């Protein structure tokens, strides 16, 4: 800036208290404080704050009222100082209102307009976090879930909820369901909104399971996994315990198909969260998750996150006898778990040693112990003792070696003190 530009003094009330820049689109909160729209929306929706940044008052009303008078003053000031290099801000586009969203939802109940309205709603939702919250506030999530639970229904005269499995034509998933799933995911619903999706009967989870199972659109299947992950993160214990075995089978297929990196991570996180509840470990094992996890670890190109999550889930599953049996049944089970030690991260190494500890402690028969020696598992555990001195991972490795030191005493990699701890 030239010297003449540096001398320009910006009125303090033109400056946003958050960004400390001149406001392009000033809006006023219920507390009476004015902020730039972009800055306050980021404060409220991206950072999840519920207070006024200046007054610290809790906001019961998140309505942002445009301050047209201040905006015109700022624009006039910019125009006057134009010769000094000050650029005039354009008049901001009027944001979508809740009444407009409501009208759009109402219009979409007409079969001829439904797809067009859903596409428009998706555009609105993707525009801003403010639009997401406004769309949620007018009850759009309930409407979208109705579409997903009742494919091919005529929404101009809603009928009682019916079983998805009884509806003809679900195999050829209509595009309105794809759009509804996409919008629900991109809404990034609040905790309350996510909880409400469960309903009383779990019908919506069943409907999402059907979408994952039969949708020809891979993107829709990925969005369903991501949506379910978010729902399960806020679910009540009874809802987690009540997860149906069929959902585990469908999620396992999603993992096996590797439809996208994002969907794979969401599916792994979903299963990690579900396994500690009730009989979910058994349900997951019976769905074939263990074998798929081993194949994932064998084929994985992700350098860190996916192997960490796969080993974490495998650790959960190996806490039950059926899970350990499935691991040992797979020809590469023990080998791939051992191979991941020191190859991925400290977290992955810790999980891998925990898996080997569970196998050695509860399933360590003669053949398993000899297989661990032949595959180099024993040598890797000895290396852990040297590198991870004093850590919990080292303690687990030491316990494994002590458990079966007599069987491995002729191995050159076993430290003498471990062998000598057994009487001859």
UniProtKB/TrEMBL annotation:
Superkingdom of the source species: Eukaryota
GO terms of molecular function: ubiquitin protein ligase activity
Transferase keyword on record: yes
Pathway connected to this protein: Protein modification; protein ubiquitination
UniProt key word Transferase: yes
Annotated PROSITE patterns: U_BOX
Catalytic activity reported: S-ubiquitinyl-[E2 ubiquitin-conjugating enzyme]-L-cysteine + [acceptor protein]-L-lysine = [E2 ubiquitin-conjugating enzyme]-L-cysteine + N(6)-ubiquitinyl-[acceptor protein]-L-lysine
UniProt EC number: 2.3.2.27
Keywords: Transferase, Ubl conjugation pathway
GO biological process: defense response; protein ubiquitination
Catalytic class of the enzyme: transferase
Residue stretches making up the U-box domain: 9-84
InterPro entries per UniProt: ARM-like, ARM-type_fold, ARM_PUB, PUB22/23/24-like, RING-Ubox_PUB, Ubox_domain, Znf_RING/FYVE/PHD
Role of this protein: Functions as an E3 ubiquitin ligase.
Name of this chain's protein: U-box domain-containing protein
Organism from which the protein derives: Lactuca sativa
């Amino acid at each position: 800036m030239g010297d003449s530009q540096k001398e320009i003094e910006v009125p303090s009330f033109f400056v946003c208290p958050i960004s400390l820049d001149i406001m392009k689109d000033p809006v006023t909160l219920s507390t009476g404080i004015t902020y730039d729209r972009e800055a306050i929306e980021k404060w409220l929706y991206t950072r999840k704050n519920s207070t006024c940044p200046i007054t610290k008052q809790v906001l019961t009303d998140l309505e942002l009222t445009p301050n047209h008078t201040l905006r015109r003053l700022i624009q006039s000031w910019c125009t006057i100082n134009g010769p000094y290099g000050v650029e005039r801000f354009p008049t901001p586009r009027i944001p979508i209102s809740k009444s407009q969203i409501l009208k759009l939802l109402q219009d979409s109940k007409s079969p001829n307009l439904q797809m067009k309205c859903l596409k428009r709603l998706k555009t609105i939702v993707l525009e801003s976090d403010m639009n997401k919250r406004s769309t949620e506030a007018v009850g759009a999530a309930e409407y979208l879930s109705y579409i997903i639970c009742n494919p091919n229904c005529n929404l101009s005269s809603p009928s009682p909820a019916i079983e998805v499995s009884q509806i003809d034509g679900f195999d050829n998933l209509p595009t309105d369901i794809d759009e509804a799933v996409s919008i629900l995911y991109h809404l990034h619903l609040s905790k309350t909104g996510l909880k409400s999706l469960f309903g009383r009967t779990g019908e919506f989870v069943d409907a999402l399971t059907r979408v994952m199972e039969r949708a020809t659109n891979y993107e829709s299947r990925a969005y369903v996994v991501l949506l379910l992950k978010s729902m399960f993160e806020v679910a009540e214990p009874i809802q987690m315990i009540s997860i149906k075995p069929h959902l585990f089978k469908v999620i396992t297929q999603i993992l096996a198909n590797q439809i996208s990196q994002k969907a794979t991570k969401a599916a792994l996180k979903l299963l990690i969260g579900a396994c500690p509840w009730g009989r979910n470990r058994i349900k997951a094992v019976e769905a074939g998750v263990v074998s798929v996890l081993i194949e994932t670890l064998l084929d994985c190109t992700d350098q860190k996150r996916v192997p960490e999550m796969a080993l974490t889930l495998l650790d959960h599953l190996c806490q039950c006898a059926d899970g350990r049996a499935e691991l040992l049944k797979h020809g590469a089970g023990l080998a791939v778990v051992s191979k991941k030690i020191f190859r991925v991260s400290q977290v992955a190494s810790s999980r891998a040693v925990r898996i080997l500890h569970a196998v050695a402690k509860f399933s360590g028969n003669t053949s398993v112990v000899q297989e661990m020696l032949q595959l180099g598992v024993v040598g890797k555990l000895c290396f852990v003792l040297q590198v991870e001195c004093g850590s919990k991972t080292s303690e687990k490795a030491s316990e494994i070696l002590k458990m079966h030191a007599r069987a491995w005493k002729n191995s050159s990699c076993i430290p003498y003190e471990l062998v000598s701890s057994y009487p001859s």
